[in-house]
Specification:
Chain B: Essential component of the SCF (SKP1-CUL1-F-box protein) E3 ubiquitin ligase complexes, which mediate the ubiquitination and subsequent proteasomal degradation of target proteins. The complex is a heterodimer of chains A (about 575) and B (about 170). Chain A is an alpha/beta fold and about 575 residues long. Chain A is built from 18 helices and 20 strands. Chain B has a 3-stranded mixed sheet with strand order 2-1-3. Chain B has 2 domains: about 1-125, Potassium Channel Kv1.1, Chain A (2-Layer Sandwich); about 130-165, no CATH class.
Chain lengths: ~575, ~170
């Protein structure tokens, strides 16, 4: 009823506006166009002219006002319901924007509160926009200024942040929405205020949904205290632990996997541990992670082998969908272990120690696997026996699991592994390949799959991502490969043409070399649907290179930035 | 089976059933599934269904989306972390006026997938703009009182330079 009377009133006012506008148009139409007055006339004419000029200015001013009102009245955003505007704001929240510092940052929701009263009211009422915060034990002026979610104790004089107004504003605005917190404990900092603050937040019955801790090893106590406060609510957890000096033994002391995994994490779905050692004999038994979907372990600088790792991997195998392990060293010790079956694992990413990777590949069974990344094998990579072991472990995993891998990324590995793979039935399902080595000791001739003939072993291949310093010759080989596949496809052979190509930016030093590379890349750009070189994308319709903004239906995606 | 849709200007669009199924209002009208929502149930398909709030140009654009999604499910669960396919992003484009009209029409026609895509499209166009830029883009008048402006300046502390660059 109220809506009806509102619309009736609206219609009546619009009708009045229409009538007034018609009168205005008629009146304006009746005004004759005046002539230009070039010379001074009699005094009486000057007085009239003065009035004319004033009236003309007033009419112009009023017409500008009409324009402004028209824009406001008929702006489609004015007609959008509040809940749709809220939905738009939520998409804004997750956007990554380029700032003046050229460092990409997340969208600053405060922008939305400065547009108009209505937007401000809706933005302040959308708790999710304000649920992300950064708490740092100490921080710089620059950091506090650039990060609108930064809210604790910078060392410089920041009255607004130091007095806690920003903190209160963020916490109040986020209402009851679970918080997403980024805690920073730099080396040598006083961590007490930060952990106190965290306790206060939890005491206010606020749930912590995502927790990202970046701490120096001398702040392990603060890290433990923070974890204890978030343990029962956190769904997304990342811990990055950094040592003060280059001594790797420092990381082994203090917090280790046992301190984290022997506790109960009832809601945890995403776990990233970086710089956390996994002991061979945990002090307490590990507890199951019954809902974990993503596990990411960075073990650089840590002597963690397969024996330390298997108990962790067994905690979550029924639910795990993504597994990433970066081994820190090459273990050659062979051990006898049972298979672990991952029924839901879709993406497996392994790098680092060869011995560990071989043993892990031989013990994993993943029937749902669709994306496999192997890279940067540390160890005696040039020894043929070891290379063959990696190749056969890889093939054994794929064949024994009966999976259909669509994306295969083998980077910083010897070409012998590609050759071992290319002849097998597992190659038939591959749609996307990433290959090449960048700055490792591998010989250029032996670092990757053979472009011209090797790729013919992959009949369904449509996407090729090159990860190496290409040469004119390698580009020519690539061009030849793309042409051959296109021709075969055109002749009815069961061979898909390459549709998407990505490669690093040109590295040729001479102008002539660069020109030749550019010519070949343009030819490639005409043969495929999408082509990305470095940060540029070839736009076929306009024949020019444009900035690549990401997106697209690429199977290969760069690992996303998971930081808050 | 085909259904005739009639735009605001009276232009007729003949669409197949799978395409029409993407449009909630049309689905309800044609099959009377949501009688309790109060839509008129079309008894004779040849009469056509009039969509009085949608212009021909917007309706034809919307039908392109419906045609694309006639055999597959669009993103509809509103998870802003999910990435829209490239086709979707190319479809929605960066023309703010057109996206807003698509958004209004998607809301009126009950097409949740398209509504979310339009919201995402608008958010992408707003990306990186300051409040003044957003106002200019959307024809919004900054209607804060002087007192409100003073309060907002206080609360924004040290990144006012971004919100209101000189």
């Amino acid at each position: 009823m109220e809506q009806h009377s509102h619309m009736t009133l609206h219609a009546a006012k619009l009708q009045a506006t229409v009538d007034a506008a018609k009168t205005l148009v008629d009146t304006l139409g009746d005004i004759p166009v005046r002539t230009i007055i070039r010379s001074r006339g009699p005094k009486s004419l000057n007085a009239v002219l003065h009035d004319v000029y004033e009236l003309e200015d007033t009419v112009q001013r009023l017409l500008r006002k009409v324009d402004e009102l028209r824009n406001r009245l008929f702006s489609p955003t004015a007609r959008l319901p509040d809940e749709i505007l809220q939905e738009i704001f939520l998409y804004c929240r997750d956007a990554i924007v380029q700032t003046r510092t050229s460092t990409p940052d997340r969208f600053n929701p405060e922008v939305l509160t400065h547009v108009c009263r209505r937007w401000r009211m809706i933005a302040l009422d959308t708790g999710v926009l304000w649920a992300q915060s950064t708490l740092a034990a100490t921080s710089s002026l620059q950091e506090s200024r650039l990060n609108p979610r930064h809210m604790l104790l910078p060392v410089e004089r920041f009255s607004y942040i130091r007095n806690g107004q920003r903190r209160l504003a963020l916490l109040d605005r986020s209402k009851e929405v679970p918080l997403s917190l980024y805690l920073k404990f730099p080396s040598g900092s006083n961590t007490q205020p930060l952990t106190d603050e965290l306790s206060r937040i939890v005491r206010r019955e606020r749930q912590i949904d995502r927790l990202n801790i970046r701490a120096s090893i001398d702040c392990d106590d603060a890290t433990s205290a923070s974890l204890a406060l978030a343990q029962h609510t956190v769904r997304w957890l990342k811990i990055t632990r950094r040592r003060k000096h280059s001594n790797p033994a420092e990381l082994v002391r203090g917090i280790n996997g046992s301190d984290i995994l022997s506790k109960e994490w009832p809601r945890l779905r995403h776990l990233v541990l970086d710089g956390i050692s996994l002991p061979r004999d945990p002090a307490s038994p590990y507890l199951l992670l019954s809902d974990l979907r993503t596990l990411d372990l960075s073990l650089a600088g840590l002597a963690v082998d397969i024996v330390c790792l298997i108990p962790v991997l067994s905690l979550c195998n029924p639910t795990l969908e993504r597994l990433t392990i970066r081994f820190g060293y090459a273990s050659q010790r062979l051990v006898s272990l049972d298979y672990i079956i991952y029924p839901r694992l879709r993406r497996l990413e392994l790098s680092g120690g060869q011995g560990n990777i071989i043993q892990l590949l031989e013990r994993i069974r993943a029937p749902s696997l669709t994306a496999l990344y192997i890279g940067n094998l540390l160890g005696e990579s040039q020894r043929l026996a070891v290379i063959n072991s990696v190749g056969s472990a890889l093939i054994s995993l794929l064949q024994a699991s009966g999976c259909a891998v669509r994306l295969l990324s083998l980077t910083e590995v010897s070409g012998a592994i590609w050759r071992a793979f290319a002849g097998t039935s597992a190659a038939i399902t591959v749609h996307s390949i990433r290959y090449g080595s960048w700055g490792t000791g591998l010989q250029a001739d032996d670092d990757a799959i053979e472009l011209e003939n090797g790729l013919l072993q992959f009949p369904n291949l449509e996407e090729l991502c090159e990860n190496r310093q290409h040469t004119v010759q390698s580009l020519r080989n690539l061009l030849s490969c793309v042409k051959v596949r296109k021709r075969l496809h055109g002749n009815g052979v069961m061979m898909k043409p390459i549709r998407r190509l990505a490669m690093r930016a040109p590295f040729e030093e001479t102008a002539r070399g660069l020109k030749t590379e550019a010519d070949i890349q343009m030819q490639l750009g005409q043969l495929v649907d999408e082509m990305v070189v470095g940060d540029l994308q070839w736009h076929r319709a306009t024949n020019q290179w444009l900035s690549y903004q990401g997106g697209g239906d690429w199977l290969y995606k760069r690992p996303e930035d998971q930081d808050i | 089976m085909s259904i005739t849709l009639i735009s605001k200007e009276g232009a007729q669009f003949l669409v197949s059933k799978p395409v029409a199924d993407r449009i909630g209002v049309v689905r309800d009208c044609a099959y009377g599934a949501d009688f309790w929502l109060g839509y008129a149930v079309a008894t004779d398909d040849s009469m056509g269904i009039t969509l009085a709030n949608v212009t021909s140009s917007i309706l034809s654009k919307i039908l392109v989306w419906c045609e694309h999604y006639k055999d597959m499910e669009p993103l509809v669960d509103g998870d802003s972390n999910m990435e829209f396919p490239e086709w979707d992003m190319a479809y929605i484009g960066h023309d703010m006026n057109q996206i807003l009209f698509v958004l209004e029409a998607a809301d009126y026609l009950h097409i949740p997938g398209l509504l979310l895509l339009a919201c995402k499209g608008i958010a992408d166009v707003l990306d990186g703009r300051n409040p003044r830029g957003i106002c200019d883009l959307l024809g919004i008048v900054m209607d804060f009182s002087h007192r409100q402006e003073v309060d907002m300046d206080k609360e924004n502390g040290y990144w006012r330079w971004f919100l209101h660059p000189t």
